[in-house]
Design goal:
Layout: H1 6-17, E1 55-62, E2 65-69, E3 76-80, E4 84-88, E5 94-99, E6 113-118, E7 132-143, E8 146-158, E9 165-178, E10 185-191, E11 196-201, E12 219-224, E13 240-246, E14 251-257, E15 262-267, E16 273-280, E17 285-286, E18 292-293, E19 296-297, E20 316-319, E21 329-335, E22 345-350, E23 355-362, E24 365-373, E25 379-384, E26 390-394, E27 399-404
Parallel strand pairs: 13-17
Antiparallel strand pairs: 1-27, 2-3, 3-4, 4-5, 6-7, 7-8, 8-9, 10-11, 11-12, 12-13, 14-15, 15-16, 16-20, 18-19, 21-22, 22-23, 23-24, 25-26, 26-27
């Protein structure tokens, strides 16, 4: 492999040894703890006694969190890499909502359960989406000399008990064979204006596939999930899907901002730049990977015919820099809390520095502001609750999640 990708390969080796960090990046773990007494907060979840700079821990016992979200009520749903979704109830109880661990490959590489998204009509008996939610994960086997892994998007429904999903209600929607154990993408988000489901798919460590229109890898898909029969087990032939963005490497987290009609995409870079890409949902775009990364053309691809396309610049990029420790963007959410829905700042972070930033638009330019830092361990996801409060998930065993204070 050319010299420019040695950093990715070194990180890949480390990922295998550490059982997955879901993102290509060089991991650094800095053990530290802030023992300050926690400031008073308005949330009603399980109380905590410590505060981490800009983050307040709540709940306990979560393992390798990959998503934090809601179903339109006061509960928080916490997805874990191994294939479990837990509920953090308003009274502090933690129960299991969905357990599909036997179906999920989560050891080695960047495998696991990545995301869960509830249909906008999940709580509305009159909606076609009543009781339905969607999960993306990897399944299969990966041994040293044999690999048989698929990336799966499935629909499930809740049981008669609103706190327990029916694991036998799975309907397959997308089944995409995988050739390599890294670059899975794996983010889901609904556009509540028309109930379209957006899905990010990584390039599966196949560089130019992100520029090939005959593959969904290295792309963002828009899916119409409205025509799937109620009790179908295989819905792949019913789902209409369209590629709306291409030229992406590992789009780990996406977020639909209905207020502006845009999709925010955090795309993990290789050896040079981390990107925040912005898609106008009325259009399509090609963000250039692997022909370019951030503001530069990548050596070795300039003369490839697939790199003759017109590319859309990243809205914001920052350097993947050994000197300062940055390594992989953690895309987040557009911050629109219930008390200030016009805020509109985009919140994101970096895996290795564990710093959290807001990104603000002014005069067509985007500027970042440091707003917090997780002082110990790693985080790999930024989620929200029904009121727009933001949360950070820890990629460690038996830990809390963290509510983020955005100044």
């Amino acid at each position: 492999m050319p010299h420019r990708y040695q950093k990715s390969l070194r990180f890949f080796t480390l990922v295998i040894l550490t059982c997955m960090v879901l993102l290509i990046a060089r991991l650094s773990v800095i053990a530290a703890q802030d023992n300050q007494t926690r400031a008073t907060q308005s949330i009603v979840y399980l109380p905590s006694i410590t505060r981490v700079s800009g983050l307040t821990p709540i709940g306990e016992g979560f393992n390798y969190v990959t998503e934090i979200t809601h179903a339109g009520d006061k509960r928080l749903f916490v997805a874990e890499q191994a294939g479990i979704v837990k509920i953090l109830h308003p009274d502090g109880r933690i129960t299991v909502f969905l357990d599909i661990r036997p179906r999920v490959i989560s050891a080695g590489g960047e495998y696991g359960m990545f995301d869960i998204a509830f249909h906008p009509g999940y709580g509305d008996p009159a909606s076609a989406g009543y009781g339905f939610f969607y999960v993306i994960y990897t399944t299969g086997t990966d041994e040293e000399d044999a690999r048989d892994v698929d990336l799966i998007l499935s629909r499930f429904r809740v049981s008669a008990d609103p706190d327990i999903a029916d694991p036998n209600s799975e309907t397959l929607l997308v089944v995409e064979p995988q050739q390599n154990p890294i670059h899975k993408g794996g983010s889901l988000d609904f556009d509540r204006r028309d109930n379209s489901l957006y899905m990010s798919v990584g390039d599966d460590f196949q560089y130019l596939i992100a520029q090939r229109g005959n593959s969904i890898k290295g792309k963002i898909l828009r899916l119409d999930v409205s025509r799937i029969p109620l009790h179908a087990t295989d819905g792949t032939s019913y789902v209409e899907k369209a590629i709306v963005a291409s030229g992406l490497r590992n789009p780990w987290r996406i977020d639909v901002d209905e207020a502006t009609g845009r999709l925010f995409i955090g795309d993990v870079g290789s050896a040079y730049w981390e990107e925040v890409n912005l898609l106008d949902l009325t259009k399509t775009a090609n963000f250039g990977w692997p022909c370019r990364e951030g503001p530069i053309q990548l050596p070795g691809f300039q003369n490839d015919p697939l790199c003759a396309n017109q590319f859309t610049d990243a809205a914001y990029h920052y350097k993947n820099d050994d000197a300062v420790g940055t390594c992989a963007i953690i895309g987040g959410r557009v911050y629109r809390p219930a008390y200030n829905p016009t805020d509109g700042r985009y919140v994101f972070g970096d895996l290795c520095t564990r710093e959290l930033f807001t990104l603000s638009e002014s005069g067509g330019a985007w500027n970042s502001t440091l707003v917090g830092k997780q002082l110990a361990g790693l985080f790999t996801t930024i989620g929200d609750d029904a009121d727009g409060n933001l949360y950070v998930g820890s990629f460690e065993a038996s830990q809390p999640i963290y509510q983020m204070q955005v100044p």
